[in-house]
Every structure is written in structure tokens, then in C-alpha cells.
Amino acid sequence: MPLDTPFAPLVARILAEATVIDDRIVKIDHFLNHRIDPHLMGAMGAELARRIAPFQPDLLLTAEASGIAPALAVALQSGLPLVYAKKYAPNVEPPEFSRLVPSPTKGGTTRLVIAQRYLPAGARVAMIDDFLANGRTALALAEIVAEAQADLVVAGFLVEKCFQGGRHSLSERNIPVTTLAQIERLEAGRVVMREAE
Amino acid sequence: MPLDTPFAPLVARILAEATVIDDRIVKIDHFLNHRIDPHLMGAMGAELARRIAPFQPDLLLTAEASGIAPALAVALQSGLPLVYAKKYAPNVEPPEFSRLVPSPTKGGTTRLVIAQRYLPAGARVAMIDDFLANGRTALALAEIVAEAQADLVVAGFLVEKCFQGGRHSLSERNIPVTTLAQIERLEAGRVVMREAE
Questions:
Q1: Which GO BP terms, alphabetically (chains A, B) (predicted)?
Q2: ipTM score of the complex?
Q3: Mean pLDDT for the stretch of residues B99-112
Q4: Which of A48, B53, B187, B191 could form a disulfide with A156 if both were Cys (CB 3.0 to 4.6 A apart)?
Q5: What is the pTM of this model?
């Protein structure tokens, strides 16, 4: 099965319930990342766990805060340990890896920090996050994994906003990407999904 | 079973693996909230789900970021929807509830924000978090629940640091508290657990 096969339960919820704010912003936070529907999140975790398994990861990696729920759902299904990058974290034990990520919605930058001992050299890492949008968080995590001399073997996302181009930062590094739903574009107040090929 | 019966798998990990930094700070972030052990987190979620069930909650509530993993573990076990308060969240849809929480480790204050529509009046809310320490986050969430005219029927925590007194802010509101491990005190570089009564 192709890595971007639409996951029907998620696509149906997006089409039925998303609020399109403008041509870049779509709100689905009532089931994805402010209020979470446990049945859908559990099903998505199981599906992502199934899709990343062939890449034989031994560690999951995400970033605070909205990545934690989908990544934990994958962790509980796969039995893989989960490391999440912290934001604003003076109490992360040094030495640490860190990257500054521009934060368009919040203004300024956010610092992502991971204690080095939790990202061992040689680890086979699967990145998990809720959205792949402009790809800046994904790029920061990919750079950290490279600095740790670990291998980023696959990246899995619930929703890709294709029109923001974030996939490029992963595909140019030859990192396989799997997504459960791809939003082709937002137009005239509605969501246009990318169909299965 | 009393609500504070020690959960043996967690107590054992704390005693075997915690790093005591000083008489207030204990590090167990390698399995709890930076790197997560999925087997232990799943087991703790199941245990908390079992303990809160008699209070018949219909909604789980926690706060970014370290509350998300334990709360989702409970949500996946119980099938209850989960709402988490966001920090620094200009994109939460108004009207919203919010409280400022002092942040001792980070300095300054953190603003917790919840969209009002995700916390309906009359909801039976179970609060879940990783730590009950000074109780400031718990108090902020309790105040928000009261403002929403919802009912906080129980609060569940993985670890209570008894010497920081946070339970007081819940017990004075007659909110039942359940904990999986209680740290009585930190002394001479070691953790002293509260025993079962």
C-alpha cells in the first residue's frame, strides 16, 4: 500500500467537520489537538504504527506539544519508546541537542531541546507529528537526529497541508514520508483533499 | 481500594532509577515525560482509568505539555474524550477560559487557555496530570472548571510530591484525589516513598 493512502476515518472527519479560516488555516482542533477523540486517535495510532513498522524503527520522536498525543498513540500500539523535544526547557539535562524553529502563529522562535542521552547514536528513529505544514519542525528534528548520528528512517503525519511544501525538507534528505490525510488546498471556504493515486 | 494505593510498577521504577537533584527536585524524565516507556505508560493509564471510573466522568482534562501523555493513555483505555489546556495559544478560538500559572522552573508565568466550547457546563470532568507538586496547575484547572460551571469529580496523578502540599488546593474543594505513587520526601540523595496505609 502506498505511504500516502488516505485513511478513510480521518478524511471523512476532515471533510465533514473542518472549519476553513482562510486559504492557509484549517481548524480541526476539536478532535485532533485541543480536544481529542480517543477512538479516532487510537485508530490513527494503530494505522501509523502499521505503516512505519517495515522501516524497523526502534525509537519514536516528536515535539511538544501537539505531537505528543499522536506519537503516544503510535508508541502504545508499537511498544516503541517515545522521546519528545521540549520547548523552553531549562531543566533538560545537558548536554542537549537544540534547534530554533520559527513560529508563524506565535511570532518569534521556539527552541526545541532534547537531552543527548535520549537520542543515542545509531538509533533508528521514526518521526511522528500531527501536521506536516511548512516543515520547519520536521527539519529541526531531522537536523537533531543527524547531529546525534542516529538514522531518521521514516516520518509519519496525521495531516499534510500539501500547499505549504513541508515535505520537501524531508524528501530532499531521502526520508520516506507517510501521511493519513493530505489537504491539497483550501479554497472558497472548503477543504480539497488529495485523492488516492 | 484506597485512592492512593501505591502502583507497584511505578514505585519500583522510581526507587530503582530516580535521580535526586536536591531536596525538592527528582528526575524521572527518562520514562515519564521526556522519554516515555510505552509499556509503563499504558499500564498507568489503565490503572488511572480504573480508579476514576466510579466517579463517572465524561471528559478528561489536562494541561500542556507533560500532562498529555498520561491523559491520552487514560483516554485510550476509558474511551473518554480528552481536552488539554494550551500554553501561549493565540490561535485558541474565543471565547476562552484562561488562568495565569506561576512557573517556578521557567520563571515568570504561563497562561493556560481552553476554548469555552470544549468545556461544556454540566460536564463531569476528571483532571489528569503527571505530577501533583505545588498544585498551581491543578488549582488553575479547577478554577477553569468551576468558571465553566462543570463539575470536577476526581483528579488523578502519576506522582505526588507530598512535601510540596499541592493536594491542599484540591482537598479544600472536596475534590477526590488519586495517585499512583507518593514521594514523602527527598533526603540525602534518596527518595522516601509514602507506604500504603
A1: purine ribonucleoside salvage; xanthine metabolic process
A2: 0.96
A3: 83
A4: A48
A5: 0.97
